[in-house]
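SAMPLE LOG
Freezer: B-3
Tube label: C17
Construct: single chain, 303 aa
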Amino acid sequence: MEQPITEKNVKPDLKGTLKDSVFRNLFGQRKYALQLYQAIHPEDTEVTEDDIGDVTIDNILIDQQYNDLGMTVRGTLLVLLEAQATWTMNIIIRILLYLAFTWNRIIEETNQNRYGSKKLKLPKPEFYVVYTGSRKERPKWIHLSNEFLEGNTEFLEMNVRILYGDNKGDIISQYIDFTIVYQAQVSLYGRTRKAILETIQICKDKNILKDYLASREKEVIDIMMSLFDQERAMEQYGNDKKEEGRLEGRLEGRLEGEMKKARETALKMKEKGYSDDAIADILEIELNTVQYWISDIKAIMPQ
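STRUCTURE (predicted):
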C-alpha cells in the first residue's frame, strides 16, 4: 500500500491543552478520529487506525479556544470545523486559509520544490462542518462561489459539507447530543461545575460518548471549566470596553463643550479690542487656534 501523505512519520494523538475544546480533545484521539471518518465514509470498510495520519490543525487564526481539526487518511486531508449557535458563512474562508497553510507546511516537511517542474504531491482535501446549533435552514452543502463569488465558479470553488448528526448512534450524532445536553444543563445551573458534572453523568447514563467520558472525565471537566473561564474573561473584556467607550464619550463631550465656550469667549474678547496674543495668553489657548477662530468668524460675517 502506498504510504499516505502526512505531515510527520510519527502519528501521535493530538495532545490536549486547556485551550483545546472537547471537540478537538475527542476527535484528536485516533480511536475516535477513526469513528468520525467511518461516519463520513461508511463505504470504506477497510480503514484502520493505522491509516489515520496527524490528527491536528494549527491555530493560525486566533489565540483562544477553538474547535478546528484536521487529519489525513490514506492521502486525503480532512478539515473539520465545529459551528455552534452563531452561524457564519465566514467558516468557508477559515477552511480555505487552513488548507493553504496545511498544504504549505506539507510541502516544506516533505522537502518538495514548489518552484520545480515536478508536480507537487499533496493530499486531496475534503471539508466538513459539524453543526451543533439550532438554525432552521439545514443545507447539506455550502459553496464558496455562492457565498463570496456571486455564483462564479470559473476560477475558484470550494464545497463544504455540513454534518448534523442525523445518523443516530454514530460518533458525530453522539457529539452533537452531548452539546445539546450540555446547553440544557448550563441553562439550569449556569456556567458552573455542577452543570458540567450533570452533563457528563446524563451522557454516560444515555450512552452518549460513554467510553470517552468515563476514561477522560477529569480532562473533560478541566477543558469545560477553562471554557467557562474564557467566556467570563471575554464578557468582562466586552463590558470593560463598553464602559471605556462611555467614559471616552463623556470626556469628549465635556472637552467639546469647554472648547465651544472658550471660542465664544475669545470672540467676545476680540470684539472688545483684545489682541490675538492677549486672548491666547489669558485663555491659555494656542495662538494659531485663536487666530483660526477669529478668521473663521470673519469669513462668514458680512462686509
